[in-house]
Amino acid sequence: MIIKVCGMRNPENIREVEGLGVDWIGLIFFAGSPRKIMDNGQWTMDNCDKRYSNCQLSIVNCQLKRVGVFVNASLEEMMETAALFRLDYLQLHGNETPEDCHALQKRGYLLIKAFSVATADDLERTSAYEGRVDYFLFDTKCDNYGGSGKQFDWSVLEAYTGETPFLLSGGLRPESAEAIRCFHHPRLAGIDLNSGFEIEPGLKDVEKLKRFIHDIKQA
């Protein structure tokens, strides 16, 4: 099972999480997120100040897979950011179309497309993206882009019969370990952890993560 920790931005925190046995870290490049990794909405080598340059260096040197999270960003912005941070995956949380995904695929990018889920009907949109992305991410439906910190009813995923593997997201917390162990789906590829393991937005509680990962891997 892939374990992804999203919303990382603190260099020391990244190094600590790297030592826990997680697989991927998520870096948020959406200006509307409290966990965004940039302030000015645009990353270039010329406008990176020292603090961001240090963060960039820490991320680039990190041995984990790096996932960049975007919302309705242009292809050019995503490609520039992917080069600066040597991203392994682009995770799309906005209104990106299957055609947008195909354009990125043709340029060699690996993709994760996020879908907000409340009912089985919400899964119908995934069919248009089959073959256009490498993973889906199923998150709790809410009014805004990004997470709500709440868990949706995973039983609706029984209606998902697609071929694309998915990551389970939305309100996962330390006490979710047993529920995750009991949840089975042939396309479940991993889990996405974020606000349920935070001290504050963008800063993860390493001890909580450590105990949770131990529980998951023991299972």
TrEMBL record:
Pathway(s) where this gene product acts: Amino-acid biosynthesis; L-tryptophan biosynthesis; L-tryptophan from chorismate: step 3/5
Residues of the N-(5'phosphoribosyl) anthranilate isomerase (PRAI) domain: 46-214
Statement: the UniProt record of this protein carries the keyword Isomerase: yes
InterPro entries the UniProt entry points to: Aldolase_TIM (IPR013785), PRAI_dom (IPR001240), RibuloseP-bd_barrel (IPR011060), TrpF_fam (IPR044643)
EC number per UniProt: 5.3.1.24
Reactions that this protein is recorded to catalyse: N-(5-phospho-beta-D-ribosyl)anthranilate = 1-(2-carboxyphenylamino)-1-deoxy-D-ribulose 5-phosphate
Broad enzyme group: isomerase
Entry's Gene Ontology BP terms: L-tryptophan biosynthetic process
Keywords: Amino-acid biosynthesis, Aromatic amino acid biosynthesis, Isomerase, Tryptophan biosynthesis
Keyword hit for Isomerase: yes
GO molecular function: phosphoribosylanthranilate isomerase activity
Coiled coil feature spans: none
Gene3D superfamilies: Aldolase class I
UniProt similarity note: Belongs to the TrpF family.
Entry-linked HAMAP family: PRAI (MF_00135)
Protein's recorded name: N-(5'-phosphoribosyl)anthranilate isomerase
